[in-house]
Amino acid sequence: MNPGIEEEGGKVAVSFIDTMKAQPLALALVVVNLLFLGAGIYILRDVAERTAGNTAKQVETYAKLAETCVPMALIPGLEKLINERRPP
After folding, report:
1. Rounded to an integer, what distance in angstroms lies between the CA atom of residue 85 and that of residue 38?
2. pLDDT tens digit string along 11-65?
3. Domain positions in the chain
4. How far apart are CA 23 and CA 9, in angstroms?
């Protein structure tokens, strides 16, 4: 009869543990890599949350600015004055 998934999984786990007992440096590398992955995921998640928050604030600020802006066409001579003061 063929061995089940549980038996095969158990064999793989035992083999992995035996290998790590024989090679402690390999175990240390696995642990350090897992720590780096965890730290990277945490930092990227934090950056993504901050970016999303900043984007929402910018959209709100731009909406307020757009509400209070006066189009240049409504103020006679404003466009000419801006163009005159603009550096060449």
Report:
1. 54
2. 998 998 888 888 889 888 989 999 999 999 999 999 998 888 888 788 888 878 7
3. 5-85
4. 21
In whole angstroms, what is the distance from residue 54 CA to residue 48 CA?
10
State if pTM tops 0.85: no
Chain center to CA of 65 = 29
More confident residue, 51 or 1: 51
CA distance 51 to 13: 41
CB-side neighbour CA atoms (13 Å) of 10: 5
In whole angstroms, give the CA distance from residue 88 to residue 80. Answer: 14
Which of helix, strand or coil describes residue 10?
helix
- Could you give the CA distance from residue 6 to residue 4 in angstroms, rounded to a whole number? 5
Q: How far, in Å, CA of 24 to CA of 32, rounded?
A: 12
| Number of other CB atoms surrounding residue 72 within 10 Å | 13
